[in-house]
Amino acid sequence: MNVIECKNLQKEFEGDGTTTVAVNNVNLSFHKGEFTAVIGTSGSGKSTLLSLIGTLDKPSKGKITYDNEEILKKGKNKIADFRFQEIGFIFQQFHLLPTLTALENVLTPLFSRKVPYDKVERAKEVLKQVGLLDKMNALPSQLSGGQQQRVAIARAIVHKPSWLLADEPTGNLDTETGAKIYDLLKELNEQVGCGVLFVTHDPVLAAKANRIITMKDGNVLSDKVGATI
Ligand code: ADP
Ligand code: MG
User: Fold this and answer.
1) What molecular function terms (GO) are annotated for this protein (predicted)?
2) Which domains are present in the chain?
């Protein structure tokens, strides 16, 4: 998949008689291989935008096209297949299954899927890519926060997605570990060609990106390519 386009994208949440416009008339395009940061204060709509792009949620108005195809208009199975093929997610809380080893966690996206490669070999390959092959039999509780996030990254890329969507992936990590996680994302972006779209609060981390999108109250305040801070 080469191009993601958000057209007049809008997401509203109803509650207690009020409507929150989490994403307000957003128009953005993303191209294959980009390394993009989304910044903005808490509540500005960053996570909602990422969920919409990742097909985890549906817009209230407007649309998203993936190579001109409106996937969200399709049935649940088609959307799930699309997500499996094209998208990998990383979250602040890692979301590893505590009773599974690192290797087993990385294998989870492949459990119920047919793939044209050996699943265990592929899982080992990505664990090697994130520098954790020697920890493949460790449980999450036996790993540091940075190592757990590396396992989560391996799990996010094991099925060879075109896009990696990361929502504050270093929110639970110290500065130095966080910087290393971003270096790893950049490496994957350059070596595997995975487009990366990441949310962060931290302007220093955002400055590692080639493109910085700033959100405020659901709106895109600025969209700078090749920006430096
Ligand atoms: P950010 O990730 O930038 O902190 P969010 O996208 O999480 O912002 O939220 C944007 C706005 O939408 C906030 O006002 C938030 O309270 C609201 N919001 C997000 N998700 C929901 C939801 N599921 N139900 C109701 N309101 C929501
Ligand atoms: Mg958020």
Assistant:
1) ATP binding
2) 35-57+87-225 (3.40.50.300)
Ligand 1 pocket, residue 18 CB under 6 Å? no
From 20, 56, 221, the mutation candidate for ligand 1 (largest count of ligand atoms within 8 A of CB) is 20
Distance of CA 51 from the midpoint of ligand 2 (Å): 10
Query: pLDDT of the chain along its 229 residues, tens only?
Result: 899 999 999 999 998 899 999 999 999 999 999 999 999 999 999 999 999 999 999 999 999 999 999 999 999 999 999 999 999 999 999 999 999 999 999 999 999 899 999 999 999 999 999 999 999 999 999 999 999 999 999 999 999 999 999 999 999 899 999 999 999 999 999 998 899 999 998 888 898 899 999 999 999 999 999 755 4
- 90 CA to centre of ligand 1 in angstroms: 18
Q: Residue 215 and residue 90: Cα distance in Å, rounded? A: 20
Give residues with Cβ within 8 angstroms of 82, minimum separation 6: 55, 66, 71, 74
Report the run of H or E that residue 48 belongs to, with start and end. Answer: helix 46-53
